[in-house]
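Dear U.,

Please find below the material for section 3 of the report. The protein was modelled together with flavin mononucleotide; I have listed the sequence and SMILES used, followed by the predicted complex structure.
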Amino acid sequence: MLLHAASVGGLYPDVACWSAAEIVRDDKDKRQDWVLRGFRQFDAPVCVIVTYDRVLDGSDDTPFDCGAVATALVNAAWSRGLGAVFNSQGIMQSPVVREHAGIADDQIIMKSIALGWPDESFPANAVVSERRSVEEATVFVGFGN
Ligand SMILES: Cc1cc2nc3c(=O)[nH]c(=O)nc-3n(C[C@H](O)[C@H](O)[C@H](O)COP(=O)(O)O)c2cc1C
């Protein structure tokens, strides 16, 4: 049950979202609009930039810790009804982000998270991602099977 509950956070369910937003694969304009939404942080009013100290670069703990803090932030936001989306697109132009957010040079930009009140009328927001089952995603050792 715990593993099932923890199996959240699908990656890029674009096809399901295109379907919900009635975008067909051949419609380049609508697909482009979809991509631009990501660069606009899905029109969310707030963008959180997750960074880490440059001295920690290369440690295997660093991406783990960034993921942990990002997950905690997203869960905290959702517990208060706020929508949150991990968004790599938001930091693809990281020098621009650094300049506008005033991020010091001793920080490395890891990821951005869009935050805002979800627009329930937007079709893609009704998509519920499919997950692999616990049996597919987990190897149990020493549980008598
Ligand atoms: C590390 C990471 C980076 C992501 N970057 C993007 C992105 O740049 N653009 C995008 O549309 N979705 C991106 N996503 C996907 C969304 O954040 C979100 O996980 C996806 O819409 C699935 O939603 P769900 O977790 O509710 O199933 C990213 C997800 C992760 C985990």
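For the text of the report, you could mention the following: The domain at 45-120 is CATH 3.40.109.10 (NADH Oxidase).

Regards,
Y.
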